[in-house]
Amino acid sequence: MRMKFHEQLDDLTDRLASMCHLAGEAIETATDALVRADLPQAELVFDLTEQKQLHGPCEEQALALQAPVARDLRQVVTGVHLVSDLSRMGGLAQHVAESVRRRHPDHVASGEAEELLARMGRVAGALAGLAEQVLRTHDPGLAAELGRRDDELDDLHRRLLTLIQDPAWTGSITAAVDATLLGRFYERFGDHTVVVGRRVIFLVTGEQLSP
Which portions of the chain are predicted below pLDDT 70? Predict the structure, then answer.
């Protein structure tokens, strides 16, 4: 009975890590589409987030598990929350792709704003890769590293907002709104990877870290 339970937990862990991998691939693909104003590339983001619908199966699998001891209960509860976090990451990648679709054939951003958004996309993709490792290894030290690496994304976001709010900004109001929204999408993506790390720390140690 216990062996079967842990086999199910291992399968759930693998599914969650796969969701994280897809979210990371989606945000990187969306960023490529953003920089190139590439509509087919943007459409690929929707294929990535929809080709393997793991949200429902993962949530059902977590809720179906029996959890007679504290550590197992934490795994079940954490699994349910992680499904939501990872699904939102995929949704944020879709938002970036939708921006490309909406402005095509024009670029959504240009100049320094586009450069900053491209860097945010690369950092977001790297954070997703690290979060996938955390989900597969349940390493609290690696999980804590997510928060530190997310600081780079937050710094890029601040620089983007400063650029847009500068009186010397020559872009249009539409461009400013687009860049502001895109920056927020990337920043929220990074925040969700940090939450993934905190949930894994809670799973392993039972400690609930404050935001």
Answer: 1-9, 51-73, 207-211
